[in-house]
Specification:
Structural class: mainly alpha
Number of helices: 8
Distance between the termini: 50 Å
Oligomer: single chain
Helix content: over 70%
Number of domains: 1
Largest sheet: none
């Protein structure tokens, strides 16, 4: 595929589902969102997602699917969840009532970068057909809902002073998702994106009520 076309499609598949989901949610809960901090977190997440993207590319394309794939999936998940924890545990965010929205912005920023870099790498490696592009679009939606869920889960843990429990649960869920993701990228069949979508939607549905519980945002500066 032409390099310019592949870059364009990768960018679109990365930004559209992530920013679209963030925009839809923040528009619905506009009175609860500190828009500047949420959008800034999205942008910072894009840069943080480079680390996630590089690690997944290295594992999926240079190790393939082997006996150690489960270990790789768990380690990748643990590192990513810790990235969310480090960002959300910054002093400027401690005690914030809108922490779930901050987490949502950061995690979706990570996802945008993750999708863009991985798909760009795939386009450069193979002559991708439009059926595979469909699989990518489905997977992009799945990755968006899954990582949004993990971000909100870490925020819940920090809010309830139970970070270790939420870190373990988040690592387990994202580990399963990463395992499915590695299989998807190795086999590259759109049908393998379906389990990813199911897991992402279920996780997001369980965490979505946290957004409803957030109190109306008031400027305290």
């Amino acid at each position: 595929m032409d390099a310019r076309l592949s870059m364009l499609i990768s960018f679109v598949l990365g930004i559209v589902p992530t920013f679209g989901l963030l925009w839809a949610i923040t528009a619905r809960y506009e009175s609860k969102v500190a828009e500047k901090d949420t959008m800034t977190s999205f942008i910072i997440g894009i840069f943080g997602g480079i680390l996630v993207s590089v690690s997944h590319i290295y594992v999926s394309f240079y190790f393939g699917i082997g006996g150690m794939v489960l270990v790789y999936a768990v380690l990748l998940a643990l590192a990513e969840v810790m990235l969310y924890f480090i960002y959300l545990n910054m002093k400027r965010f401690r005690g914030r009532t809108d922490m779930p929205f901050i987490a949502l912005g950061f995690s979706l920023g990570v996802t945008a970068s993750y999708i863009g870099f991985l798909f760009g790498h795939l386009f450069r490696q193979d002559d991708v057909n439009w059926d595979e592009v469909l699989g990518m679009a489905l997977f992009a939606f799945a990755a968006s809902t899954m990582r949004a869920s993990i971000g909100m889960m870490v925020a819940r843990g920090l809010g309830k002073k139970l970070p270790v429990k939420q870190l373990l649960i988040g690592t387990a869920l994202l580990g399963v998702f990463d395992l499915l993701s590695l299989i998807f990228f190795y086999e590259f069949l759109w049908t393998f994106a379906v389990p990813c979508i199911v897991l992402g939607l279920v996780s997001f549905a369980l965490l979505f009520p946290d957004l409803k519980k957030v109190r109306k945002w008031t400027v305290t500066e």
